[in-house]
Q: What sequence folds into this?
């Protein structure tokens, strides 16, 4: 219902207010507009798994900040913890009566917390922020090792592959599969030696200025490469490059694609021929990465790709698409609150097991790592690129 | 309150179910009510001192014993989704007793009932029952987020035609209740046939939490309807629409599951919002259900036949639930996203013979109000199956908090007068948070005092929601 709901909200804003609302105005529906309906409560994984505490819900956070301002209270450890306990999955946005962009709202609260109220970051976040600023990645890995996964340098001029930190350092099989698939289809691509973190973790932590610095740096290097088309295999990089960079007010006139969009075209054009990766019929289910699905609007493409492989049965999990559950790794939570976020991925794995699928495919390195940690032997968790590479 | 008392509460529920953090206390004392000034808690001094989240009746009992001894005010909540300030503390130094962790569900299929904790959400209950072919047939509009405990405590339902199907409390076989003095009692029984004669269950159903804390509910199992049918009907005016609804009762038409209406102004916004092509008029939305094949369709046919006697402009029979959901979205959207500050006052449910005049009287009043206050718009919508209406007023964005508050208080008084004039009951929101004056005027001091004395018997130290009644 969500997209239709949002669309109609746009129309009806126009009708009721007699002045059409621009896209920009719609985006500014902020925390001040919360009308306390509490619909966000039931869709919030932190509320459900974290002990039914209202302060964990968007409603609770908005109210806590509101009263903090009203009564001049000082933020404390509990409020700080609550403000960071959000994976910015956006599952609540679908139900929000007011259409508040909750992930953006949360980023704003976090930003307020350390700019206006001078609260320090959580220790785990402090570490990754420092590492991003020093090494260009959150994993404290040296810059020069960013392309270690690459067997042979690639210098094509058609697409620029923006690898992203997680695929480069932690899940390099995704990066390798992406290059393999694109090369096999005859696409000429290059990578960027100077690539640095896209800034998504910083944005999600509300460090807007710091994120913009990285955006400027990346944009500069992209311009130098002379390539106009950018492809990425990471849902977070995709959303950041495609939507957040242009909003930051910097010159960013590149075409940004998620690898699933490119693969879909290649399969349709017959440039990539796929077969069943198993001996018998293979059953596959798909986990929507929050940043590719709810936050970027790509739901059907990955499903169509999987469904197009001969002898592959595609099955849905109980919660899917707009209502899909979060793996727990977004919003900067890949690096902290491990116990709670693993409870989220375990809940997701349980849904995947209920479908009896052999493979749980996702399209984001964070989802892959987080889900793998909870999956054990069954089901096999793969990124879309890995699964397609397996199906060649 | 002393530090010892706070730590005594903590000891009962354990660290993980306790918080004395100021922000947690604030957000656990706010509910779904919308104060036009934007603040629900007006007094800093009334921030509760602790939130306790018991997980069983024994814990509730221990907490209440301490509270009773120390005369600590207790505000009970589960989902906290009421829109009437029902869970906002009225006294200083209170604790919040949050029952949302008491959310177990035991299906006793062979006995024909389900036992649930008060923190179970209506949708969770229905999702749990659906695979077994059952449902709980009465639920509020907030079924996604509201809890069974709260629903039964107020005895409220939203959309379902409860004048026909009954209130949710009618399906309660028995309760486990912790009294304010700490005793755990059981009311009702396990038989599907409730006993004749005095039944204490009835006191706690709709008791608004004044007499005790419900810690378990035994609910009858009812078959989930086999099928549903949907339609919408546009009438030239709200008046004709109300006449059609009253006619349904008078002509003994099989009554639908849902019967909703939007007035002309609301309909215009709603149909435009969803891109539905429809003539200008007031819309009636119908859902019927049935347990036998063809039953839902038969009911719908009968309803439409009756409606036709009032000469509707257009009738659309919907083909699927998704079409109905789109229509429902159209109903939900406008009131939630007006740029001005909007306020839905309450429910007004007139007797059948006064329905037409009550609806028209309310509309006349609202129009007069809007004409007197530039930039104000007013709409009527609601559950005509009741028959019941909500008043929706949109105030100009430029009005300040003081002005809004003043007007809201004035309107509340006027609405009370109209309620008395047309003998309208508030069918959805409880009495004591907001309707005390109405209760005293409608039923008299004798009835009010009886209630107060009953409360005193159960709660001698007035610890449960003190200051409400």
A:
């Amino acid at each position: 219902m969500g997209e239709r709901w949002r669309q109609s909200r746009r129309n009806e804003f126009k009708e009721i207010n007699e002045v059409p609302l621009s896209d920009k105005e719609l985006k500014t529906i902020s925390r001040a507009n919360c009308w306390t309906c509490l619909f966000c409560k039931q869709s919030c994984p932190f509320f459900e798994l974290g002990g039914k505490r209202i302060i964990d819900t968007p409603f609770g956070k908005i109210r806590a900040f509101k009263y903090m301002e009203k009564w001049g209270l000082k933020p404390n450890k509990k409020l700080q913890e609550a403000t960071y306990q959000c994976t910015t999955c956006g599952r609540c946005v679908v139900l929000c009566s007011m259409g508040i962009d909750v992930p953006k709202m949360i980023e704003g609260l976090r930003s307020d917390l350390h700019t206006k109220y001078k609260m320090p970051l959580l220790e785990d976040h402090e570490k990754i922020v420092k590492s991003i600023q020093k090494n260009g990645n959150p994993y404290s890995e040296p810059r020069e090792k960013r392309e270690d996964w690459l067997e042979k340098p690639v210098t094509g001029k058609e697409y620029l592959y923006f690898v992203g930190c997680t695929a480069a350092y932690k899940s390099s099989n995704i990066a390798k599969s992406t290059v393999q698939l694109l090369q096999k289809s005859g696409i000429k691509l290059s990578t960027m030696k100077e690539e640095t973190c896209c800034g998504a973790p910083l944005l999600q932590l509300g460090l807007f200025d710091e994120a913009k610095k990285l955006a400027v740096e990346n944009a500069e290097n992209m311009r130098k490469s002379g390539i106009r088309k950018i492809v990425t295999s990471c849902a977070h990089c995709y959303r950041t490059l495609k939507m957040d960079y242009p909003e930051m007010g910097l010159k960013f006139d590149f075409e940004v694609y998620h690898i699933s969009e490119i693969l879909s075209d290649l399969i349709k054009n017959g440039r990539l021929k796929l077969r069943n990766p198993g001996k018998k019929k293979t059953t596959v289910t798909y986990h929507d990465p929050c940043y590719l699905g709810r936050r970027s609007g790509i739901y059907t493409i990955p499903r169509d790709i999987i469904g197009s492989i001969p002898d592959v049965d595609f099955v849905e999990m109980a919660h899917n698409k707009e209502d899909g559950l979060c793996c727990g790794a977004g919003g900067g939570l890949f690096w902290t609150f491990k116990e709670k976020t693993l409870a989220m991925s375990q809940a997701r794995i349980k849904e995947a097991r209920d479908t009896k699928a052999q493979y749980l495919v996702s399209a984001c390195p964070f989802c892959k790592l987080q889900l793998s940690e909870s999956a054990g032997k069954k089901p096999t968790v793969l990124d879309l690129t890995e699964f397609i590479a397996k199906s060649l | 309150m002393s530090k010892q008392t706070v730590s005594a509460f903590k000891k009962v529920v354990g660290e993980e179910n306790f918080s004395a953090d100021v922000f947690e206390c604030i957000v656990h004392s706010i509910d779904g009510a919308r104060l036009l000034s934007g603040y629900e808690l007006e007094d800093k001094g009334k921030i509760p001192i602790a939130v306790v989240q018991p997980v069983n009746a024994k814990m509730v009992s221990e907490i209440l014993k301490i509270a009773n001894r120390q005369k600590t005010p207790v505000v009970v909540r589960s989902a906290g989704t009421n829109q009437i300030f029902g869970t906002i503390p009225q006294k200083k130094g209170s604790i919040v007793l949050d029952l949302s962790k008491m959310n177990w569900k035991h299906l006793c299929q062979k006995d024909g009932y389900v036992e649930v904790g008060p923190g179970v959400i209506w949708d969770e209950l229905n999702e749990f029952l659906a695979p077994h072919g059952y449902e709980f047939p009465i639920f509020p509009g907030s079924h996604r987020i509201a809890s069974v405990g709260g629903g039964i405590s107020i005895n409220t339902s939203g959309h379902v035609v409860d004048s026909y199907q009954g209130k949710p409390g009618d399906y309660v076989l028995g309760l486990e209740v912790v009294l304010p003095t700490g005793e755990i009692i059981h009311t009702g029984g396990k038989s599907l046939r409730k006993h004749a004669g005095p039944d204490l269950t009835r006191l706690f159903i709709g008791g608004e939490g004044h007499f005790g804390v419900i810690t378990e509910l035994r609910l009858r199992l009812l078959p989930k309807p086999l099928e549903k049918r949907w339609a919408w009907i546009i009438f030239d005016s709200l008046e004709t629409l109300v006449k059609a609804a009253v006619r349904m009762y008078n002509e003994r038409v099989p009554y639908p599951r849902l019967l909703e209406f939007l007035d002309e102004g609301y309909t215009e916004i709603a149909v435009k919002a969803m891109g539905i092509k429809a003539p200008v008029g007031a819309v009636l939305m119908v859902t019927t259900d049935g347990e036998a094949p063809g039953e839902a369709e038969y009911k719908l046919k009968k309803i439409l036949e009756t409606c036709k006697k009032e000469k509707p402009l257009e009738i659309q029979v919907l083909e699927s639930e998704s079409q109905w959901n789109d229509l429902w979205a159209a109903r939900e959207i406008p009131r939630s996203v007006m740029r001005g500050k909007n306020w839905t006052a309450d429910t007004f449910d007139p007797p059948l013979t006064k329905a037409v005049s009550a609806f028209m009287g309310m509309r006349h009043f609202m129009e007069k109000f809007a004409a007197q206050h530039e930039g104000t718009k007013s709409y009527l919508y609601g559950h005509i199956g009741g028959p019941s209406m909500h008043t929706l007023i949109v105030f100009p964005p430029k009005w300040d908090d003081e002005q809004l508050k003043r007007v809201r208080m004035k309107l509340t008084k006027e609405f009370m007068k109209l309620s008395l004039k047309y003998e309208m009951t508030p069918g959805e929101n409880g009495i004591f948070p907001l309707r005390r004056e109405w209760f005293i005027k409608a039923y008299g001091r004798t009835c009010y005092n009886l209630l107060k004395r009953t409360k005193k018997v159960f709660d001698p130290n007035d610890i449960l929601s003190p200051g409400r009644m």
Summary: The first helix of chain B runs from residue 3 to 13.
